[in-house]
Specification:
Elements lengths: L32 H17 L3 H11 L4 H14 L4 H6 L7 H13 L2 H57 L6 H15 L3 H19 L2 H12 L4 H22 L4 H11 L3 H15 L4 H8 L4 H13 L2 H58 L5
């Protein structure tokens, strides 16, 4: 099956829909960024080599191990054999493949730039995978440090502090307030009582999170809370803005109408604030308003993006301008990721080690030293 389409595509996504296509597949979840890169590279390679896509994808599916990517590849091959165009076949996988993918393929076929579009999609998907990897690596080490610190504190409270308590009780030592507090916490740990409020807090936070995710308003509230977090909030916000502006720039570069380009980019974005206001922006763009003016009115993105978009519209360079904005936020995200990865773990270690050490020294060692001093006659 060739990617050539003898008739101009007439649907918004680029396929030649002279007949209504069957209902799309709805089973399974979306492909990961890595799987999307693999699928796109295989399609690009077959297109460059002039291979029939239906046969090539069917052969590729047979070589794959069972999984979501194998299912998508096989269903694409089946749809192409059934006479669907490539954009139509991709669109039928809309629950597994991003909506913008079919639109960009249709634009590439329409303009004769399918190879360029596929190469751009590969770069974009790889960039998304890199973003997620950087964000995960930046937060993983601090999380491990916190978990280990909690484990050390629990170990001391359950195994070490009770032994000191027994010594203090045997010698009937008058204990300072900090020692009594540590012993009380240790008793709660041993009895499991201390973990009850911790579990309640964690369950409450998870419940609130799921409740907020059930509505667009709640997702927006949660996003604002996350974005307000120091360092981590800026990293997440920058990564989402970089991905959104880069994809919007790609769609604009391929001459996809701006209202549709905005909708596709907003749908692909993981930013709830952009998802929430996407409909209003699309409506106003279809009414003929400029994107910069709409963004300034809706306040969905930072002022930098608004100013750059207005400049790009005036100069007729909206696509390159959006890519420039994306590069700025990529650098910002990289800087925040480096800061979190390099500075935060040592800082946490110093703070936590100092806190645990101070509690142990002043709460446990100091009374013991006083006891030894009294037994040796040092107090005479």
């Amino acid at each position: 099956m060739s990617t050539d389409n003898p008739q101009p595509p007439t649907s918004p996504s680029g396929g030649d829909f002279t007949a209504k296509p069957p209902a799309p597949f709805t089973t399974g979840g979306p492909l990961s960024a890595e799987n999307l890169v693999t699928l796109n590279e295989e399609i690009a390679g077959m297109a460059r080599a002039g291979l029939p896509l239906d046969q090539g994808l069917a052969a590729l599916a047979r070589e794959m191990s069972s999984g979501r990517l194998q299912q998508v590849t096989q269903q694409l091959a089946d749809d192409l054999r059934a006479g669907h165009t490539l954009p139509q076949a991709i669109e039928r996988q809309k629950d597994r493949v991003p909506n913008y993918y079919a639109a960009l393929l249709a634009a590439g076929i329409r303009t004769g730039k399918i190879g360029e579009v596929l190469a751009t999609l590969t770069l974009y998907a790889r960039a998304m995978a890199e973003f997620r990897g950087n964000a995960l690596s930046a937060t993983l080490y601090p999380s491990v440090v916190l978990l280990i610190s909690f484990g050390i504190f629990a170990f001391m409270g359950i195994l070490i502090v009770p032994k000191f308590e027994q010594i203090f009780m045997d010698f009937k030592i008058k204990l300072p307030l900090i020692t009594e507090a540590l012993i009380l916490v240790s008793r709660y740990m041993v009895n499991g009582i201390l973990f009850v409020p911790i579990v309640v807090v964690v369950v409450s936070l998870v419940s609130v999170r799921f409740w907020l995710r059930s509505s667009a308003w709640g997702r927006g509230v949660w996003a604002r809370i996350v974005y307000a977090l120091p360092l981590v909030g800026t990293l997440i916000r920058s990564a989402r803005l970089a991905a959104f502006t880069d994809l919007l720039g790609i769609l604009v570069d391929q001459s996809i109408p701006l209202p549709e380009a905005w909708r596709l980019a907003a749908e692909a974005s993981s930013d709830p604030l952009l998802n929430e206001g996407a409909g209003k922006v699309e409506t106003e763009l279809r009414q003929g308003q400029a994107l910069g003016a709409v963004l300034r009115q809706q306040r969905l993105v930072p002022e930098l993006i608004v100013w750059m978009v207005q400049f790009g519209e005036r100069q007729g360079t909206l696509g390159p301008t959006l890519h420039h904005v994306a590069e700025f936020y990529r650098r910002q995200m990289g800087n925040r990721a480096t800061l979190i990865r390099i500075l935060l773990p040592p800082l946490l270690i110093i703070i936590l080690a100092g806190s645990i050490g101070a509690l142990f020294i002043f709460g446990m060692i100091a009374p013991l030293v006083a006891l030894l001093d009294a037994l040796s006659g040092g107090g005479k």
